[in-house]
Amino acid sequence: MSQVAPLPFYTRARQAMADQNLQTALDRATGRMVVARKQAIGLIADGEAARDHARQIRAHTIANLDRYLDEFVANATALGVHVHFAADAEAATRLVVDIARANDVTRVVKGKSMVSEEIELNHALEAAGMRVVETDLGEYVIQLDHDVPSHIIAPIIHKTKEQVAETFRRELHATEAEVAGIPEMTAFARRMLRAEFLAADMGISGVNFAVADSGSLCLVENEGNGRLSTTVPRLHVALMGIERVVPTAADLAVSLRVLARSGTGQALTVYTNVITGPRRADDPDGPSALHVVLVDNGRSNMLRTELEEILYCIRCGACLNVCPVYQEIGGHAYGSVYPGPVGAVYTPGAFGMGPWADLPQASSLCGACKDACPVRIDIPRMLLALRARAEEGGHTPRWVGDGLHVFRLLATRPRLFRWASAVARRLSRWFGPNGFDRLPGPLAGWTRHRHFPAMAAETFTARRRRQAETRGQS
Ligand code: SF4
Q1: Hey, which of 9, 215, 232, 239 would disulfide with 75, CB 3.0 to 4.6 Å?
Q2: The total number of structural domains that make up the chain
Q3: Residue 57 is part of a domain; what is its CATH number?
Q4: In 137-243, where does DSSP find H-type helix?
């Protein structure tokens, strides 16, 4: 995955905070989604129990992933599905290009697929001479703008409707009437895309869940483009992360109950597609051939590690919407296909620290992500584990590591801690009786946006002792 922007994370974050269009778009969208999620989860009587059940299914599946993948492959193959395994992005793109070439494909339509973004599939297909058209409305706008998604379920959350109208005018010569409002723009895109579906040789989709005991694929969506991409062209290729398997249809039902509610606040998405094999004598609908590409691409690096829990993720996007950091900087600042709290764990976990070492720092550890997550993934715990990895791997500035060592030295020696805090208190009140508007050196980042208050005249321990004594006397 090479979607990292050339600038350091902190520079990208500062730029995002200064971008007024982005701030308007984020305020409108995340606020709306947070309210919708709360209402939708609140509407099911056993909402908390459903989350516990969904988590238990994910935990059990990931703990037995090899078994359920084998079962899925056997059942899907028996239905006539061609199942392939790709160890990394390069193998996955090569497989899809080879399938397309072997079937004389020249035109491709794509439903929304985060895995295809992750492996940069469009570039590979276009380099092989194929025309690729994104058919999810948000992804279509992204493609027209040569942009990248900034949210895992709302790819153009960073754009206002005015910006989308401008894209349609510029790239598709839309008239003013065709971009007069959101319904008009949606109808316009629909007309443009309908012709693409009818002309395509191959449809590509993601997979929300694969059911092990039936070999079925489940795709959820709201626009119908997923259904058209997977049924109209003669060939369907589904890209699936290896973790997206569930044992049974009953487990799928539980997962679907919490997915849409957490993502968009809907009880269920408008389209829930369950695809069980390609067209055959006893089932004449759909494409004549169906290929499933199981993509690892770093996922198995996290199995049996302290990051395994991130593989429980069902990609609902709720943790992004509630995250106070994501709400301010949006998705592009993360530089990764997977932004927000889930991405801050998933990206360095799957692809290594490399350029992603700053991402686990992009959190206040407030825990809002864990509270919102339908499968209760403990993201803050894993962010801390990754911060430790970054420090051990020499990915954090030297002063941070040295500072933490000094803090540990003091914090594990109560007498020394009391003495050092008394000295620090005196010095702070001497040099800055009213606090500091500007701190020196690496601490300057703190005062760039806020005041650093003076230390209290009396320590917490001293105050407690004094209050206890006062109570004892009365
Ligand atoms: S980590 Fe949880 S809240 Fe975030 S996208 Fe995944 S399932 Fe949704």
Answers
A1: 215
A2: 2
A3: 3.40.50.10420
A4: 137-145, 161-172, 182-199, 225-231
Give the residue, by CA position, lying nearest to ligand 1 atom 4: 319
Ligand 1: distance of its center to the CA of 259 in Å? 9
- At residue 214, the 3 state secondary structure works out as coil
Task: Write the CA distances from 309 to 61, 306, 349, 383, 384, integer angstroms.
Answer: 11, 7, 11, 12, 14
Q: Check whether 50 has a pLDDT greater than 60.
A: yes
Domain range for 81 is 9-300
**Strand-by-strand arrangement of the 107-110 sheet:** 82-86, 289-295, 235-241, 202-205, 107-110, 131-134
Domain boundary among 300, 329, 361: 300
Mutational pocket test of ligand 1: of 30, 153, 261, 315, the residue with most ligand atoms within 8 Å of the beta carbon: 315
**Inter-CA distances, 275 with 198, 209, 258, 397, 426, Å:** 20, 11, 21, 50, 70
**Nearest residue (CA) to ligand 1, atom 2:** 373
C-alpha closest to that of 206 among 358, 309, 314: 314
Give me ligand 1 centre to Cα 390, in Å. 23
Four-point Cα dihedral 5, 391, 319, 56, nearest 10: 130
pLDDT in tens, 14-23: 999 999 988 9
Q: Which pTM was predicted?
A: 0.89
**Residue 437 or residue 472, greater confidence:** 437
Residue 84: count other Cβ atoms within 10 Å of its Cβ: 17
